[in-house]
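It is worth pausing here to work through a concrete case rather than discussing structure prediction in the abstract. The textbook approach is simple: state the sequence, then state the predicted structure, then interpret. We follow exactly that order.
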Amino acid sequence: MKQIRINMAEENNVIEKIAIKYGLIVFVGLTAYFLFMKMVGLFEIHELRGVNFFILFAGVWKGLTHQRKNGHLSYFEGIALGSLIALIAVIPFALFIFFYLQLDTQFMANIIANEAFGQFLNPYILAFLIAFEGGISGVLVSFGMMQYLKKSSLVSAT
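Step two, the predicted structure:
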């Protein structure tokens, strides 16, 4: 019984380490992409934030396949791991955007002027929306990926 608890604790530590590693990689990717878009002057094209989804997708995929290759990955563990990767990535990114909007008031004014319901937006609301949208995206991406990984593991097992 004690051995089972130790193995479960070790497995949880491994999953947490993978989530932290890939979550931080995604956070760096999101931040670098934002700063790059700012440097080249494309940050005002708000539709380009859709690329953030692909950065998140890639990070969750790498984390899930890393865990699957190096250990056991059950269906629900995969959804939890992918969701945790997303949360570890988007919460610091939302905080980064919050502080950035405090400093760059012109960017905040641009968002207010060009977004639907912009007059109701402020850095607090935008940071919350980024965290919420990223978290939901992470859960949905994880769910979709585990559908694929579940099928491919069943095929390879037969």
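Step three, interpretation. The helical segments are 2-40, 51-70, 75-103, 105-114, 123-157. The mean pLDDT is 87.
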